Amino acid sequence: MFDKLFQAQQKAQEIKARLDNISVSGEAEGGKVRVVATANKEIKEVSISDELFAENDKEQIEDLLLVALNKALAQAENVSQTEMAAASQDMLSGLGGLGNLFGK
């Protein structure tokens, strides 16, 4: 039992490390605002084109930044959920017949 728990913790750490190395991005206004994040939802880069600064006011740039951030974080969430679902499936199949208790 403790061996399975240890394996589950180890697998979770492996997934977290893998998610740290996956980059996702979100853009707004045709790429004039771009945000890069890890799949662990850590923002790594924000870029705003000089052209956008010249064309728009502060409030509009902030709105576009929010759009790009939310897109990047949504993409990170999707990648994270996919990785966790795959790991959960692996763990359940490792339990033999017990995995079938949950309809899998």
Automatic annotation (TrEMBL):
SUPFAM superfamilies: YbaB-like. Its main location: cytoplasm. Pfam families: YbaB_DNA_bd (PF02575). It comes from the Bacteria. It is found in: Cytoplasm, Nucleoid. Keywords: Cytoplasm, DNA-binding. Coiled coil: none annotated. The keyword DNA-binding applies. Gene3D superfamilies: Nucleoid-associated protein YbaB-like domain (3.30.1310.10). The keyword DNA-binding applies. InterPro entries: YbaB-like_sf, YbaB/EbfC. Binds to DNA and alters its conformation. May be involved in regulation of gene expression, nucleoid organization and DNA protection. Homodimer. Belongs to the YbaB/EbfC family. HAMAP family: DNA_YbaB_EbfC. This is Nucleoid-associated protein H8B04_12085. The lineage of its organism: Bacteria, Pseudomonadati, Bacteroidota, Sphingobacteriia, Sphingobacteriales.
